[in-house]
C-alpha cells in the first residue's frame, strides 16, 4: 500500500467530511463537523498555514467556534490539533487505530442468516442497546453513516456493529456491542467479520479505533486479523 492511502487515516474525520460524508457535513470557513444527531466529530486543519496561507490558528479555531456555538462540545476525535487555552478540556482517552493488513489475508467467511441489516426503523432499539453497553458515541442519525448489522435473539436486538468514518479507500467499523446477557457467543466477531467482508468486496479496506484500556476488544480484533497502525488520543473540548 502506498503512503497516500495510509495518509487518509491521519485525519479520518476531515477526510470523510470532505468526501464520502460531504452530504452529512456542515462547514464554516476551515472548520468541518457532522450534522447534529449524526455524529459529534469535528475537524480543523492540523497545519492551517500549509492548507491556506491566509489562515492562522486563531482564525481556524474561531471558525470552529462559529460552526459549533458557545458551550458546545468540540469532539476532535484523534486530531492532534490543539485549541486555544480558553477551550476547556472535556475528555482525553488513549486509544489505537487498527487496520486490515491488506492483500495477504482473505476476507472473513460469510455469516448466518441471523445477521440482519439495521435501518432507520431499528434506531430506537439500537439506541437502547448502546445505552446498556456504551460502545461509544451513537445518536439518532448515526445509522446514516453506513451499513449497520445486528443479531436478534427471540426478536430482541442483542448485538450490533456498523460503518462509521469513510476516508478515501477505507471504512471504519464501529459501534461494536453485545448485550450483557448475550456475551460469550461470538456475536461481535461475526458482525465485525461480516462488515469487513462487505468493505473488502467493494474494494476498500476496513479499519477501526479502540480504547487502549479495552484489552478484550483489542484481542478480538487481532484475532480477526487487524493490526495496530498507530496510537491515538481521543480528545474533546468545550467551546468558550
TrEMBL record:
Residues 113-240 form the N-acetyltransferase domain. SUPFAM superfamilies: Acyl-CoA N-acyltransferases (Nat). InterPro entries: Acyl_CoA_acyltransferase, GCN5-like_dom, GNAT_dom. Pfam families: FR47 (PF08445). CDD domains: NAT_SF (cd04301). Gene3D superfamilies: 3.40.630.30. This is GNAT family N-acetyltransferase. It comes from Streptomyces plicatus. The lineage of its organism: Bacteria, Bacillati, Actinomycetota, Actinomycetes, Kitasatosporales.
Amino acid at each position: 500500500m502506498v503512503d497516500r492511502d495510509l495518509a487518509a487515516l491521519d485525519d479520518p474525520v476531515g477526510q470523510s467530511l470532505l468526501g464520502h460524508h460531504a452530504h452529512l457535513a456542515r462547514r464554516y470557513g476551515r472548520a468541518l463537523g457532522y450534522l447534529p444527531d449524526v455524529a459529534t466529530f469535528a475537524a480543523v486543519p492540523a497545519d492551517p498555514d500549509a492548507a491556506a496561507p491566509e489562515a492562522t490558528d486563531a482564525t481556524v479555531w474561531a471558525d470552529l467556534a462559529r460552526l459549533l456555538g458557545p458551550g458546545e462540545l468540540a469532539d476532535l476525535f484523534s486530531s492532534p490539533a490543539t485549541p486555544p487555552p480558553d477551550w476547556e478540556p472535556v475528555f482525553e482517552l488513549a486509544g489505537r487505530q487498527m487496520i486490515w493488513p491488506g492483500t495477504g489475508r482473505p476476507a472473513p467467511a460469510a455469516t448466518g442468516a441471523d445477521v440482519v441489516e439495521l435501518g432507520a426503523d431499528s434506531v430506537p432499539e439500537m439506541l437502547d442497546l448502546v445505552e446498556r453497553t456504551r460502545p461509544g458515541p451513537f445518536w439518532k442519525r448515526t445509522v446514516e453513516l453506513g451499513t449497520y448489522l445486528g443479531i436478534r435473539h427471540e426478536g430482541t436486538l442483542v448485538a450490533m456493529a456498523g460503518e462509521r468514518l469513510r476516508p478515501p479507500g477505507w471504512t471504519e467499523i464501529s459501534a461494536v456491542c453485545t448485550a450483557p446477557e448475550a456475551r460469550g457467543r461470538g456475536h461481535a466477531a461475526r458482525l465485525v467479520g461480516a462488515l469487513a467482508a462487505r468493505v473488502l468486496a467493494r474494494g476498500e479496506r476496513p479499519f477501526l479505533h479502540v480504547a487502549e484500556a479495552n484489552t478484550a476488544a483489542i484481542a478480538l480484533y487481532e484475532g480477526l486479523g487487524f493490526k495496530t497502525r498507530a496510537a491515538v488520543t481521543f480528545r474533546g473540548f468545550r467551546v468558550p
